[in-house]
Every structure is written in structure tokens, then in C-alpha cells.
Amino acid sequence: MITRDDVLAWLNNFRQVLAENKTYLTELDSAIGDADHGINMDRGFGAVEAKLPGVMNSDIASILKMAGMTLVSTVGGAGGPLYGTFFMRAGAAVAGKTELSAADFLAALDAGLAGVRERGKATTGEKTMLDALTPARDAMRGVVENGCSIGEALRTAATAAEQGMKATIPMLATKGRASYLGERSIGHQDPGATSSYLMLKCAADTWSSL
Q: How far apart are CA 145 and CA 122, in angstroms?
């Protein structure tokens, strides 16, 4: 089971991953966006990290909702509303829980994904974070139904997210700032899909023994 402490460790670790990849994400965004995705995500999760001590005794839903609300208020551009919605919806899907099974985390991922889709008015194939999150959800669902471990389920999801992230390179962007570039958006990896992959890979790495 994924405990409250496991969730806190994941968020702490993801903040470090973002700090390490801030320049990389910003470079990706400089090609097709506002050149601030890495900077914004690092700032947002730095604010989340600062608030974690205040929710150490809360249920998992409250922790995720806090993260979402903090991201909405501190992250600029599209990242704040989209990641904020992801975490708030994910939290709502596991209300009252202090431990999560693989199926519970899948439900949270599914709810968060739906929130991103609705908030961004986007679907797969449009060069967004959905192109990493959706195949990750689908791949995880396939293995969870077969009763695999949490660690295996997350590794499967992260691998699918990585493939989805790379699949954004030849896509034509039709949403957000990148859509203004038209054909020039082709050939660049989407920064939102990249940070989504990093988020799921971090979960897989953090919970590898579960």
C-alpha cells in the first residue's frame, strides 16, 4: 500500500527532480512556449514542499488538494491551472484515505487526467501533457487489472508516459502558446508532457519497493 508518508516522499522527491531539470524543461519550452515551464514548475513545487510539514498528519486527499491549490496560486502560465487541477481532482478521488492500493492510485491518476482534459479543453494528439498522462493511465490500468504490485504498475505507467512524451516530437501543436507556431512546432518535445513523465517516473522510483 502507498502510505501518507510515501505520498509526502514522492512530492518531496519530485520537487528535487524539478530543481534538477529546471533548465532542461525551460529549454524545451523556449522552443515552442514562453521559456518558463521549468522555472514555474520549480517555483510551484518549492512552495508545495514548504507546506508539506503542515499536512504531515492529514489524509492523502488533503495532501494532494493542498498541492493542487498551491500550484494554482504560485505557478504561472498554463502549468499552474493544469497541474493544480490534476492534483485537486486526484485528491478528490481518494477522499478520506490514509493508504492507497494500486487501484486507488489509478483512480486518482484517472481523475486528475480528466481534470486536465476538461480544464485545457484538449485531447491526445495535440502536443500536451495529456499525451504522456493518457498512455500512462491506460498502461497502468492494464497491469493493475492483472493484480501486479504497485511498483510494477508505476514502472509500467512511467514507461508508457516516456513513450508518449517522445511521441509529441513530430506532433503539430494545436493548444496553448505552441499552437501559434503552426508547422514550426513540429520537431520539438512538449515540455508539459516531459514534466508529466518526470512526475510519474519519480513516483515509480520513490515507490519501487512497494
A: 27
DSSP 177: G
Whether the per-residue pLDDT at 5 is higher than 80: the answer is yes
pLDDT value at position 143? 95
What is the enclosing helix (H) or strand (E) of 2? strand 2-3
State the Cα–Cα distance between residues 130 and 132, nearest whole angstrom: 5
Task: Pinpoint the alpha helices (H) of 33-149.
Answer: 37-51, 60-74, 79-93, 102-120, 130-144
User: What is the rounded distance in angstroms from the CA atom of residue 128 to the CA atom of residue 135?
Assistant: 12
User: Can you give the residue range of the structural domain that contains 111?
Assistant: 2-206
Q: How many domains does the chain have?
A: 1
CATH number, position 41: 1.25.40.340
* H/E segment holding residue 100: strand 99-100
Cα end-to-end distance, the chain, whole Å? 7
* Mutual angle of helices 60-74 and 79-93, in 10-degree steps: 170
Question: What are 162-187's pLDDT values in tens digits?
Answer: 999 999 999 877 656 555 555 666 88
As a whole number of Å, the CA-based R_g of the chain is 16
Cell of 193: 508532457
Question: How much is the pLDDT for 178?
Answer: 57
pLDDT value of residue 183:
64
> Cell triple for residue 161?
508516459
Q: Please, what is the Cα angle at 136 between 162 and 74, to 5 degrees?
A: 80
pTM of the model: 0.94
